[in-house]
């Protein structure tokens, strides 16, 4: 079964395994590991997660009333996992879907002018850690050691600076589109619509800017690679295209969703009641895809 799924994944982008009843989280870990690649740790994360066991994490720990927009895991970096698994341990009472979208289709349906502009100019992600507004650098980098953070940043071509208050700011130039290393197909591959300040509700945006003082001090933001601001209308068009390409299905207890992380974006719907979905990732992307 694992061999068949792995063979089909580059064509269809995702496989839903239904009717599983893993005894515990270790059984899910063993299942994900059976596809031939060691599971990855969650480094340089942008959202809060907790480690369940080695290579297995909670899904993003955002409040139930918040939507997590479609995105490809860690597409705000130059190194990302090629495969990702979601295991539904406990479905929510209502909502709580993990919507998906074909990143090839998103690329094809986007306004060509927007697509080409983003591809040529690339994207610069800016992050300000800590101060109670976002992940601390300690949690994002899984260390208390500044020197270790600096070594990681240099290795990943991430610009960094320690601010006078002791907090960290990073900048990284990344791709907006990418070519899949197996299929050769182009995919829309970035998190501009998620990192940009326009992703926040207007009242939240105004309140946050009042606290931090300027766009440069926002916990996260994104601009073109040359530093110019992204256009709000372009981001609105991108979000509309993602919405048009979205597919939803209700979770059932025991489900496992396996995605090719470049071919399929994922998100999370709002929900009520208890919900537990755990995640594993594997197979670092070959260098130079961005």
From TrEMBL:
Gene3D superfamilies: Clavaminate synthase-like (3.60.130.10). It comes from the Bacteria. Keywords: Antibiotic biosynthesis, Dioxygenase, Oxidoreductase. Its cofactor is Fe(2+). One of its GO terms (molecular function) is dioxygenase activity. Signal peptide: none annotated. Residues 9-279 form the TauD/TfdA-like domain. Pfam families: TauD. PANTHER family: GAMMA-BUTYROBETAINE HYDROXYLASE-RELATED, TAUD_TFDA-LIKE DOMAIN-CONTAINING PROTEIN. This is TauD/TfdA family dioxygenase. It comes from Cupriavidus oxalaticus.
